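User: My instructor asked us to take a sequence, write out its structure as tokens, and then describe one feature of it. I'm not sure where to start. Here is the sequence I was given:
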Amino acid sequence: MDKYDIIVIGAGPAGVAAAVYAKRYSMNVAVVESGTVGGQLSTAAEVENYPGIRRMTGMEWAEKTRAQLMHLNIPVMIDTVESIKQHEGAFVLKLASGTELGALGVIIATGSRHRHLGVDGEERFAGKGISYCATCDGYFFKGKDVALVGGGNTAVTYALFMAGIASKVYLVHRRNEFRAESSLVEQLLKMPNVVPVLDCVVVNFDGKDMLERMRIRNVKTNEEKDIAVSAAFIAVGETPNNELAKGLGIAVDAKGNIPVNEKQETGVSGVYAAGDLTGKGWAQAVNAAAQGMAAGIECSLYVKNLKSKELAK
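Assistant: Let's start with the prediction itself. The structure tokens for your sequence are:
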């Protein structure tokens, strides 16, 4: 079993920042990532609100992130952590590949996953017109009529992205105004092929082999109607990936977030959490990175203290 000072789970902005700062504190640190280095930010059409970056695609940011980890000799294992067990004052991580890793400290930065609507037809047409990432799948529907569901930054950003690809973009939101940043909404309302559909929710999705239409209902009048679309991109929030924390007995809040203090400490000594799964502040990459920085430093100090106590025996 390979042993490390610190294992970081997740290679999004929080996890990468945690690993970088742990390395700066001379920790033997490794990163385990089940998907893509860069996390959800790697799927962004453009990154232009991160300090020091004028503009680049999410994939370009992900490649630069990977290069930075390689430069610092921080190993990245593409694998899934299935469980974390406490053992003699340390931790044992079991991976899906069967590998076991030992660590004195663990930083959970597993982020969150896309929330589903839970309506009829959603699962049936997943990958057949229904997607949760417009920047990933949008080009498959170039010149088509599509829908976006949601009213936050992600939904509006996706709508703006699709406006440059699709023939028409319906943006369906259950409230009478969007929750996104005003600058994004202003851009959206200037797009001639974007049709805001407010005060409405999706009732179901329908079609033959591929998505062909969606039924919506006005929440004020209860009137229902069909909209013909070839794709629907759903952006209605995220669900924290908290399973590993819960497996350690760490309590989560009503939204499933992992509560942490100012040091990013969880309820288990030696386990830290950072990023979107904490529900701490805005769900933005720069905030996740700041949390990762704090977790990396505090976990490093924790490990150094453990080693000092061991040497003093």
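For the description part of your assignment, you could build on this observation: The CA atoms of residues 18 and 293 lie 5 Å apart. Try explaining in your own words what that tells you about the chain.
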